[in-house]
Amino acid sequence: MGLMNILKKLKEKEREIRLLVLGLDNAGKTTIVKKFNNDDINDISPTLGFNIYTLDHKNFKLNVWDIGGQTSLRAYWRNYFENTDGLIWVVDSVDKLRLSDCAKSLHLLLQEERLLGASLLVFANKQDLPGALSAQQIENFLDLKSLKNRHYMIIGCSGHSGENLLEGIDWLIEDISTRIFTF
Amino acid sequence: MDSCEKACVLESFTEFEEVQALINECINLNSTVIDESTRLTVESLFETWVKIFDRYQEQPHLIDRHISSIISQLFAPIYKQAESKDDQSPSISYHTSCNFIYHVSKVRGFKNLIRHLPHSVTDLEIVIDLLSKESIDNLVTWRTRYVLLLWSSLLATLPFDFKKFDSSDDGRKPLMVRLYDLIKINLVAGDTPKVAAAVSCARFLTRPEISKIYLESHIDWCLNVIDEIFKDAISLNNGIGVLLSLAYIFKFGKREDISPFAPKILMKIREQNILSQSKNLLVKIMIKINQRAGLSLLRIKIASWRYQRGRRSILDSLKSNSSTNEPSKVSSDVKKSENDDDYDDNYQVPEEIEDVISVLLDGLRFNSYIVRWSAAKGIGRVTSRLPRSLAGEVVSSVCELLSPSENDGSWHGGCLALAELARRGLILPDQLSVVIPAIIKASVYEESRGNFSVGDTVRDAACYAFWAFARAYEADILRPYLNEITSALLIVAVFDREIRCRRAASAAYQETVGRLGSQNVPHGIEILTTVDNQAVGRTRRAFLELSMFVAQFNNYYEPLIIHLIYKKINHWDQEIRSLSAEALASLIHFAPLELIRHVIGTLLEKTLSKDLSTKHGSIISLAWVIHSMREMKIPCQDEILVGIQKISEEIKSSLGFKGIKGELFRSAICFLIEKISQTRLPLDKDFIKTCWIDILKDCIFHTNESIRAAAVSGFVALYDNYFPGDSKLEDIWMKHLIYNAYSNLEHVRCGILEALGSLPKSFISHDTIKMILKTILQSLSSISADESIWFSWKVASINCYTSLLIQMNNSDIESIRDLVEKIIHHTLNVAMEDYTTSSKGDVGEAVRIAAIISIKKIALHFHEISCEILTNEMINKIINQILIHCVSHHNEMRLAAGENFFEILYGLGKHFLLDDLINVLPTKEDLASVHFRDESNFPIWFAILPLTQYSYSLWKGLVMSTGGIPTSIVKLSLEALLNQLKSIKSKDEAKFKNVIDSFIDVYRDNLTVERMCLQLINTLNSLINSGILNDLEESKVSSLIDKTWEMARTTAIPKKKIATVQLMCACLRFKGLQKKCLNILCIFLCTKYPFVRTNAADELYTALLIYEDIFEDDGGKGDDQVDEETNQEKALRLLTETDWNKDRSILIPIRDKLKSILGLRL
Ligand SMILES: Nc1nc2c(ncn2[C@@H]2O[C@H](COP(=O)(O)OP(=O)(O)OP(=O)(O)O)[C@@H](O)[C@H]2O)c(=O)[nH]1
Ligand SMILES: [Mg+2]
Questions:
Q1: I want to staple B147 with a disulfide (CB 3.0 to 4.6 A). Which of B32, B82, B98, B1147 is the partner?
Q2: Domains parsed from chain A with CATH numbers
Q3: What is the ipTM metric for this complex?
Q4: Whose CA is nearest to atom 30 of ligand 1?
């Protein structure tokens, strides 16, 4: 395999991005992914296993893995860490009670070796509901500023209205695609 | 990309409908029993499926958007099978579906396919049930197992506790036990599904709850299998699945779970000394396991000491955008974390790592490409987790591979590893001063092995390394080396022998300019747009044009020149030496005096080398360079004159050398003489007359044609430039030639003719020319038996008289008109009809081609000087004679004839004789797109068929194609001919008659010509069988039959007899000729040759089946028979019952009986 073959393979590989969508149950992960994919979002039940979506976006092929967030399932999240380019963490901005649980889960996750290179996008979801905390407030709650060696962005959004979903994903893809090293 | 490559590139997946139809058919396959017809259906379905998907091997991503839909449909039969109660005979559509899925995964890659498989919790039990019904001994359904195992690997990631999973209370084993058992069986089965089993195994065993139960024992099993493989206790094939599972476990597993096992695995690897193995696949997997086990012992870190390229700027710009765009917010942290250096200082690298690295380094030197490649990647990955100081040591060790004592494999592995390290930014700036010069050396690495060399993979890998540097490092860091790097890349891009290396260098250069910015690579954009992927594809263009383009920038001429004189003019490939010499001469124009002097000095020194290639290359380079220097008006110092004399004398004294050495010496020195003469370098004239003339005298009679040609050119240049009009030299030369005129060596005679044909005009008088022409003509018209197969000599004769003739003016020609007419006559009637064959085959072809070229040159010359020797009759003859060859069955002949034909046609200006032709043939402009060698061009020529004055010649040529070999020509020419005949017939019946009459004439005139006989019969046979001659007067056909029979009766060649048999059968369609043909066929039934007899019986049998009307006359019944058998049946029975190989005395009565049944007189 010479350089010309390497280049050909690389070109294909660079256009493929693997994203992992995680967060507590009921955060709206499935809703967001479905909305982004233009699917019907009226009839969504809690995810008991996982879903895989293949989306074309801006010349990239996104392989999006949406995993169920219920407590019993979280131990198995790591089955899916392999080769992850980007992590989307979805937060229910109204669920103030479980925010500390949410922060704990996130920080635990970010310590995972195999996710070290992944860019992080946090969706502060359900902004359409009254009483939703702002992205800023959630950033503080989750103590994102303490993250080292991690590119991240937090953005308020709504899986129902679709607001800011595009902006978030665009940032993530931009960040991943300008990366030079793979780990 | 050339047009050809482009044509192969597909735009999208276009066969979706076809695929959908196949899926439907597959799903609807109802039966469970395989009978012959279903088996065939299924096979053909799968074959079609494979054919469609294989088209996408090169661009498999095109099928991506359809995979989901394909897979979900194909899973219907799988689910249906799962519900089915019938365990014994699975449905055909189930297996077919799996076959289909398997092939998609083969084209697209299983990693890609997996995520399209269904994955609901209930699937797990289904897949285990189905899998347990598949026997590993079934050789037909292995694809089904593969697909099921692949599916299980996805299901093995489901987020549920397996232990709580079991739905079955029926006393069966728990699911996880069943799954693991199935996986293990398939791992050691040895066939393809083992790969899927390994993936599934690793997925399953790295689950948090499962790893606690099974992982340890599995790994022990793996270690055991390693031992057994190395002991040859089990075959590699059966063990490799297990090893693969180990490799995958270390890929998927969580570090804390797997690292405890790493030490014992690494110990095993050390114990077994894996690199002593010769099985590449085994070594590759072991290298991988070694690497991954090593990685599991090392902490992942974002190695911030490593040089990181500016990502911050991108983020910063984003940040400033988003600040105005609440509520989104961006933050980043790529600052060096403070405790990084702590990491380096405090981190204790496990001791096993040293072994891991040493295995990888050895892997880089392993004699298999795939192993080196795998090791290089491993080096990259492992090093990325090492502290700074250790990483530096790895880089140094890798650099040591690029040393003269290592072989090409090590150099290659070394370059790959450096590329992988660079790609990850693991080579520190302060190491670049060692690393970059090493890669530059690798970029021109080439080890000659006589008439080939090794090293192209090394050079390619060096380009990869530079490419990686350009991507990973910032211009500031690379700046001190940039000029060297770009020079090195451009040298490879224009001067590498291998196209793939030139392309790789061009790509790496492009990356360098693109990543580091054109401000850092002066003229980068200009160069990269010219020296692009396509341009470097052609060797000559790269060497001569692109090098000149590059040389004008950044003083690149200097590295280019230096590279040529030290690395290329002594290249093992003569073609490369010649190109390099020529390129060198051009590049000299850019160079300052000092460099030129250096070049000359080096070349002079190298001419004395003992190495043949070096000597040859440096002599021709010297010739070229001195030529350039004279053009540039640079004075030549004495050392040059001395050097030239020295090397000339040396070669003169070694003219005794035979073989390749003698040839290289001679061609080099002749070239030197020619080039130097052209510059009129002030050499000592006595030296020239003695040394050079002696050399030329020898070379002019050499057996090798190209050396003779070089000697001729050398002499002409020498005479014209040093001794114009010197009668003494003329005398010496002519005497040398004439003295040898009666040599009985062909090449000597050729040499004389070639020399005479090229003599300078001032050299010979009109009388001498006349004498030469006369002599040639004489010798050609009284050829001895030996001389008749001397085709080179004949060609040389023709070339000689042609070149003498076309030097003459009108009045000179007029004065020897008689002679000229005789020459033309010879060319047209003797040379162009030279069909001499020898042990070398059709040696006359070269003569015919020479004659065609000759007559063209003569005709065009006469036209130009308005010489009127060519009569209309002659012109007509020329056209006709060439036309014969324009439709030849031989590609080279068609090419020569076609091109020259049109040169004459459009070169003679307006001539009433040619108007007819010009009307029906392609115009001058259209000719550009005609390739005369192309076999599909017959229709062009067949347009002439209706022109009466040419149809005879055309037939004469084309029967060789329509009735000969190879079949491809027969098919194309015959098809074109029949089309043309049909079209003529439908338009003009009378014209059609004329055309056929010409064919009949050709047939009659040439049937006795040995080389045409079979072709004529075959062509006639094809014409009759096509039906186009059905209306032909029977009398004409009858005369052709007579003519053929006359020939066939007397010939001893069975092939001709058999062709005649076929022709007679074909002629049975002419009612009035049936008796005649049957009579002849009956004679063949008892001919001397058994082979012909059986053939005649076979052919006649078929004919009697077809032409039932033969039996019409007698009402179908025999007279002396009482049974119900018809005459036809009787005849057929006789033909099949009889063994026609038997003795003729037995056969004659049978034949006579047949005759009476056929109503023939005895
Ligand atoms: N109002 C509002 N409701 C939302 C929004 N996004 C999701 N929901 C609702 O939140 C509930 C949970 O959504 P899911 O998408 O199933 O959540 P999930 O994160 O996939 O949950 P698990 O699969 O159990 O991990 C659903 O009833 C959604 O309709 C949103 O932006 N606004
Ligand atoms: Mg969900």
A1: B98
A2: 17-36+58-181 (3.40.50.300)
A3: 0.89
A4: A126
